[in-house]
């Protein structure tokens, strides 16, 4: 019952934040000397695939960890943040460093039937508390959908995808992050 209320509350908070962001963006689009020119993008801007959370303000340019996966995939973890609701959200960027398009391995979704039936995701990710000797799995909503980036299948060469995964918060401030087919990494949890 608590999990159902918490998941619904979290979805409501996310919807409210998105609505506020859209309203602020629309307000900023009004006036301001439109001379017909489009802003130039820097040459170093990377192409992105799919939708995902944007970079959070205040994050350093240096990732917490960089994990290597199969077929030229890499995962840069940019934050592992504990929130007041008792959750840890891990944010990062999945990138295809290879020369060819890569089909995202289905193993990243994990092997739980409830998660697999909801399509491709990062539902196989876990946090391990080495001191408490406990493993924490990606959270699910009341309908069994993992609280992580979903709905992706292929990354073209050089493309990136902003990703997130949400877990129950372990008591430790340092955990081991694991994702099938990727190397593991030790992450500090902030917040």
Automatic annotation (TrEMBL):
Residues 1-26 form the signal peptide. Residues 43-58 have a biased composition (Polar residues). InterPro entries: TAT_signal. Residues 28-66 are annotated as: Disordered. Keywords: Signal. This is Secreted protein. The lineage of its organism: Bacteria, Bacillati, Actinomycetota, Actinomycetes, Kitasatosporales.
């Amino acid at each position: 019952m608590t999990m159902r209320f918490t998941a619904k509350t979290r979805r409501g908070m996310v919807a409210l934040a998105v609505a506020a962001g859209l309203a602020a963006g629309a307000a900023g689009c009004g006036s301001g000397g439109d001379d017909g020119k489009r802003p130039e993008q820097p040459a170093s801007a990377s192409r992105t695939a799919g939708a995902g959370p944007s970079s959070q303000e205040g994050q350093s340019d240096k990732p917490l960890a960089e994990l290597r996966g199969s077929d030229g995939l890499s995962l840069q973890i940019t934050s592992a943040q504990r929130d007041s609701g008792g959750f840890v959200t891990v944010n990062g960027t999945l990138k295809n460093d290879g020369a060819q398009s890569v089909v995202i391995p289905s193993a990243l979704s994990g092997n739980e039937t409830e998660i697999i039936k909801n399509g491709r995701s990062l539902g196989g990710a876990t946090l391990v508390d080495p001191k408490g000797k406990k493993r924490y799995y990606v959270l699910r909503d009341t309908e069994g959908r993992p609280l992580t980036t979903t709905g992706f299948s292929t990354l073209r060469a050089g493309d990136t995808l902003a990703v997130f995964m949400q877990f129950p918060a372990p008591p430790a401030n340092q955990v081991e992050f694991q994702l099938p087919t990727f190397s593991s990494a030790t992450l500090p949890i902030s917040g």
